[in-house]
Amino acid sequence: MTRPTFLVTTPLPDPGMRMLEAAGEVVVPERALVADELGAACSTGNHDVVVAQLTDVFDEATLAAAAVRGISNYAVGYDNVDVAAATRRGILVCNTPGVLTAATADLAMLLILATARRCVEADAYLRSGQFRGWQPELLLGSDVTGATLGLVGFGRIARATAERALGFGMTVRYTARREVPDDELGPLAGRVRRVEFDELVRTSDFLSLHVPLTDDTHHLIDADALRAMKPTAYLINTSRGPIVDERALVDALRDGQIAGAGLDVYEQEPEVADGLAELPNATLLPHVGSATRSVRSTMARLCAANAIAMARGEMPEHPVNPEARLSSGTGHRARG
Ligand code: GLV
Ligand code: GLV
Fold this sequence. Notes:
With 336 residues, the chain is of the alpha/beta class. The protein contains eleven helices and twelve strands. The structure holds glyoxylic acid (2 copies).
């Protein structure tokens, strides 16, 4: 059997590259590929599998011309890939679920605490030499204990966030298509309640987003939703930027429609909406939800293992569209 070739758009942390190099030939572009270049690189028939980042966009046109067996995404989210188009072309798509759940839930909790307690403002205050000693009303924030956390979506990361929030004495509610029965809830059984989206938006002190980005969730939090939130409430987003209408959020934060926002993701990364970075009531992180050394290394291992399995014609461990089936790889060149 010929050794497979991997197109790796951005080098993976250890042990990802070592695993890929042991299994086949690894091609890493000298600089990041822009959209057309990615499409061109995927269409040559020279690569069996693409190892991709969430910043690499695989749209219908790119996939229609692609001659690869699979795409191994170095992320749990895969909204950068038009999965339906990939499936039609017999191209498998893989992700890295599970291993970043705790780290991302930690970051959601961090954003809740940091935003409520004005951590970034307080740090800047001290560093700029303004701290003159204890004052009764210095940098007062909001209570987390006793507050209601509303989770939009109730997948792995939302549930891990719920566990943390309960530890902080928060009341936890969620909205999801179906009510999750207690026997599926483990330690959360009897401690969380499902409500309708509108009620969740109206009643939460912290509204935290944990849904994937799809046509249905694009701008789920729009000007109307922001207006429906309590003026004392905070919006937390560790999922995907376009779930929030970011310009409407800037207006809401500026006009005091809501109290604050803690964000790790943005609509047009790496840009942020005009005015957002000037707002003191926003905590802004650069998409670091899964950014711990051990998590990124485990993601690299899963991502490489998925890529190697696809290159060998085996079913990978984490396919997003198993129905695409390796064998039907219609887009892939025949190898001699
Ligand atoms: C990061 O955003 C991921 O989807 O893994
Ligand atoms: C993502 O992994 C989720 O299920 O929340």
